[in-house]
């Protein structure tokens, strides 16, 4: 029996996933959570084989949770189940250690099959076009992306500098470099381009 943990903040979606997977042959839902904090409380006692995670969770997001779960339960593998359909999101999920990436439009059979594949040590990225487009590499460095991500959340240069323990000039240089690399007209335009590609 494959033990699954479902982490999804929308209650009706979570209930649907639990019901769907609970009725699939060879799969047992051993825990569910609405956010990362709750998931980390559940994972130790549930010891799931596979964790099904939404990326866009309140507080700690699904990518950070994907990094943390195997620390708590080394045998646990993760699948991201999301509405985010950009190659950059897939790349960030894989970099976070996810073994699967599915859109929420996946069929019930596709979801159950993905859980079985990932549990057996495989990797699943659906739809296929997302896997094929992974060659779309971000032009941003990790530091530029980090500064741009904070700017996207509404922080100004001074707040970003305080958050990252950097000088104001360094932050401005990173944001300026990001704008230039993305051939953007402004910082707002750079944020829009980076978000559209899933680079932040």
Describe the structure.
The model has no long low-confidence stretch (mean pLDDT 89). The chain is elongated. The chain has helices at residues 11-22, 36-46, 62-72, 87-95, 108-119, 128-132, 142-152, 157-164, 168-181, 187-197; strands at 2-7, 27-33, 50-53, 77-82, 100-103, 124-126. The chain folds into two domains: 2-132, Response regulator (Rossmann fold); 142-197, Winged helix-like DNA-binding domain superfamily/Winged helix DNA-binding domain (Arc Repressor Mutant, subunit A). It has 200 residues and is α/β, with parallel strands linked by helices. 52% of the residues lie in helices and 15% in strands. The relative contact order is 0.11. Helix 7 crosses helix 9 (168-181) and helix 7 (142-152) crosses helix 10 (187-197). The chain has a six-stranded parallel sheet, with helices on both faces.
Give the structure's gist in a few sentences.
By secondary structure, the protein is an alpha/beta fold. 52% of the residues lie in helices and 15% in strands. The longest helix is centred in the C-terminal third of the chain and has 14 residues, at 168-181.
How are the SSEs ordered, and which strands pair?
Layout: E1 2-7, H1 11-22, E2 27-33, H2 36-46, E3 50-53, H3 62-72, E4 77-82, H4 87-95, E5 100-103, H5 108-119, E6 124-126, H6 128-132, H7 142-152, H8 157-164, H9 168-181, H10 187-197
């Amino acid at each position: 029996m494959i033990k699954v943990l479902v982490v999804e903040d929308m209650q009706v979606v979570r209930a649907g996933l639990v019901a769907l997977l609970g009725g699939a042959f060879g799969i047992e839902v051993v825990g569910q959570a609405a956010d990362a904090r709750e998931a980390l409380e559940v994972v130790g006692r549930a010891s799931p084989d596979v964790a099904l995670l939404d990326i866009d969770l309140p507080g700690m997001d699904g990518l950070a949770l994907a990094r943390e779960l195997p620390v708590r339960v080394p045998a646990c593998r993760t699948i991201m189940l999301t509405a985010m359909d950009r190659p950059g999101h897939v790349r960030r999920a894989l970099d976070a250690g996810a073994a699967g990436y599915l859109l929420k439009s996946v069929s019930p059979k596709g979801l159950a099959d993905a859980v079985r594949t990932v549990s057996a040590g495989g990797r699943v990225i659906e739809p296929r076009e997302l896997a094929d487009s992974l060659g779309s590499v971000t032009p941003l460095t990790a530091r530029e992306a980090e500064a741009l991500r904070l700017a996207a959340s509404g922080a100004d240069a001074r707040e970003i500098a305080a958050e990252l323990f950097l000088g104001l000039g360094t932050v401005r240089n990173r944001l300026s470099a990001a704008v230039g690399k993305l051939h953007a007209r402004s910082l707002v335009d750079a944020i829009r381009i980076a978000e559209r590609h899933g680079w932040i």
